[in-house]
Write a structure and sequence with these properties.
Layout: E1 5-9, H1 32-44, H2 51-72, E2 75-82, E3 86-93, H3 113-120, E4 123-129, E5 132-140
Helix pairs in contact: 1-2, 2-3
């Protein structure tokens, strides 16, 4: 697995789209469940995928949307890009703070989401913007 995380300026943003949309627009995602439904809709167009890859993509989606709500003031944009060997989920929020991987305190709940995203993804990038950030997380798929 070749997972990496970096921050780059907005001008180098990865291409993303929602099913039926050419680019970002107002976010239609308010909850992790809504985000998972959009991802499932996009995956249906790909044909059958191994269940573990679908599970990985849905878990990454849930974690990114949950983190946007918990740490970034909510989802401001959401996108899905389908490539020949990967599906990329992009989640934007209004916080400029980049995710951190802290040492986990066993007595404190939470703190597992970002490490899970990094472990399951082929590539993770963070695009910083003046009004927040967008996290692009690519999960490998066998088509």
């Amino acid at each position: 697995m070749n997972t990496r995380s970096d921050t780059r300026p907005r001008t180098q943003a990865a291409p993303t789209a929602r099913p039926g949309a050419g680019a970002y627009g107002p976010s239609t995602v308010g909850t992790p469940a809504q985000a998972r439904r959009l991802v499932c809709h996009a995956l249906a167009a790909l044909g059958p995928l191994p269940p573990d890859q679908i599970d990985d993509l849905l878990l990454v989606t849930s974690e990114l949307v949950t983190n946007a709500h918990r740490h970034g003031g909510g989802v401001t944009d959401f996108g899905i890009a389908v490539g020949p060997d990967r599906v990329t989920v992009s989640v934007a929020d209004a916080s400029r703070r980049t995710p951190r991987q802290d040492l986990h305190d066993e007595l404190r709940p939470g703190g597992f989401g970002w490490p899970i995203v990094l472990r399951l993804c082929r590539e993770v990038t963070v695009d910083a913007r003046p009004d927040g950030k967008t996290i692009h997380a690519a999960v490998t798929v066998d088509r």
